[in-house]
Structure formats: C-alpha cells, structure tokens
C-alpha cells in the first residue's frame, strides 16, 4: 500500500504529495490487475497443454475421449478465448491508457503546471 508521504521532499504534505500518492496507488492497482490477468492467461495455456497430454496418455480410454469430444471442443475454444482476449485487451490498453512517462512529461511541461504555492493541509 502507498501511504501519503512527503514525496517531493519540501517538508510538508501538500496537494501535490496527495496527487502523487494517489497516482502511485493507481499504478499499484493497475499492476495487480495486470498480474492476475496474466496469471489467468497462463493457466488457460497450461490447462490446454495438460489436457492434451492427458487425452493422449493411456490413462484415458478412447471411448471416454469419444464421449467427451463435444465438451473438449468447447473447453479448447473457451481457453483459447481467454488467451486471445488477454492479448487483445493488453494491446488495446497499452494504446489507450496513459503511461506514467506521458503523464510525468505532461506534468513537467511549464504550460500545464502553474507555479503557484503549494497549499498546505
Ligand atoms: Ca511536499
């Protein structure tokens, strides 16, 4: 967790410190979300591989595989859908969401940041 601290080291907790810690918290949550989505995609890939190996192993009889054929088709489609959606959404989000670099450079440009005195809380 991110706590509010004097991030710009000017000796007081101001509006800017709050904004920065808000932003750090947002980044942390975004990273957590991305981690869990990546984990889900990996589980989907690994489950497809494990299921395929299991189906070809002698532990499962041919009749059982034949009986489950329809269900297995749906299983593969669903798992591949999870992986495909993960890749698509990741690519889309990297284009649409603002990156830390773009935000920092926007905040650092003199046009957007007034040089007013930081209000104290
Ligand atoms: Ca400060």
Provide tags for this entry.
121 residues, 4 helices, binds calcium ion, 0% strand, mainly alpha
Folded structure, characterized:
- The protein has 121 residues and is mainly alpha-helical.
- It has a domain at 38-90.
- Helix content is 70%, strand content 0%.
- It has four helices and no strands.
- The protein has helices spanning 15-56, 62-67, 69-96, 100-108.
- Helix 1 packs antiparallel against helix 3.
- The longest helix is centred in the N-terminal third of the chain and has 42 residues, at 15-56.
- It is rod-shaped and about 75 Å long.
- The chain binds calcium ion.
Give the topology.
Blueprint: H1 15-56, H2 62-67, H3 69-96, H4 100-108
Helix pairs in contact: 1-3
The chain binds calcium ion.
Calcium ion (CA) binds at residues 6, 8, 10, 12-14, 17.
Order of helix and strand elements from N to C terminus: HHHH
**How would you sum up the major sheet?**
none
Low-confidence stretches: none
Which structural category fits the helices and strands? mainly alpha
Question: Shape from CA axes?
Answer: rod-shaped
Number of helices: 4
* Ligands: calcium ion
Relative helix content? over 70%
In terms of quaternary structure, what is this? single chain
- Span of the ends, CA to CA: 22 Å
Question: Taking Cα atoms only, what radius of gyration do you get, to the nearest Å?
Answer: 24 Å
Beta-strand content: under 5%
